[in-house]
Write a structure and sequence with these properties.
By secondary structure, the protein is of the alpha+beta class. It is built from four helices and twelve strands.
């Protein structure tokens, strides 16, 4: 492992950079894909302006499927994303498809869900992989390919949470070696980069958050993204 030292003249710059980075990542985290009535900041609906309550998904008479698309969210440090959709449809044969799109809008992975009973309101729970596709950021896209205007499905709520797992015996980001990743690890990593020395328990392997063999600014970036992603 090669620690990347920081000169004294760079310490102030590094501190300011980390503070600005944290603020920018917090701004991104506030736009993570959570959707409910009157709470859809950053989401887009191909059917026009988002309504005040529920979003109808169906294929128009021209053959265009209406879609609901989440704001872009960071994927660093996320193995997968767990999704729960509250879906309303009076037709048990109408499925909802939820896809992970890359920043260019291309579908990377998807899950199709069918109602499991005749109840008009269903909860769909599923997990979509993130790290397996090497995504730095992504969007969720919801669409119902089989529905028409007469039997349209309705998205009432979308809840998401990040899923992270350890890799081997070392958890990337567990700088203090206590078995979990918290803000204390970010503090320890920044202190290490500023001073070049460690106090207490310090894991060089855990500090190499992006696992590129070096310990530097990019690891701070990755760790902050990881901490914010876990709070989705």
């Amino acid at each position: 492992m090669r620690p990347r030292t920081v000169s004294k003249t760079m310490r102030r710059t590094l501190f300011i950079f980390c503070a600005l980075l944290l603020m920018s990542r917090m701004a991104i985290a506030q736009e993570t894909p959570q959707f409910s009535n009157n709470n859809y900041e950053g989401w887009t609906y191909s059917g026009g302006e988002l309504p005040a309550s529920s979003v109808y998904l169906y294929k128009t008479s021209q053959g265009t499927a209406l879609t609901l698309i989440s704001p872009e969210f960071p994927c660093q440090g996320i193995d997968s994303i767990a999704v729960t959709v509250t879906w309303k449809s009076n037709d048990p044969g109408i499925a909802l498809t939820t896809a992970i799109d890359n920043p260019q809008g291309q579908p990377i992975d998807s899950v199709s869900s069918l109602p499991t009973s005749n109840a008009s309101i269903q909860l769909f729970n599923f997990t979509l992989p993130i790290s397996a596709h090497g995504l730095s950021s992504a969007r969720l896209r919801l669409v119902s390919w089989d529905a028409t205007v007469d039997n349209a499905g309705v998205v009432m709520k979308v809840q998401t949470s990040a899923v992270t797992t350890s890799h081997g015996t070392v958890i990337p980001g567990d700088v203090d070696g206590n078995g979990e990743t918290t803000i204390a690890d970010a503090t320890a990593l920044i202190d290490y980069l500023l001073s070049g020395s460690t106090t207490g328990t310090f894991s060089l392997e855990g500090a190499d958050v992006n696992q590129d063999g070096d310990i530097g600014i990019s690891d701070v970036t990755a760790l902050i993204d990881m901490l914010l992603a876990v709070s989705l």
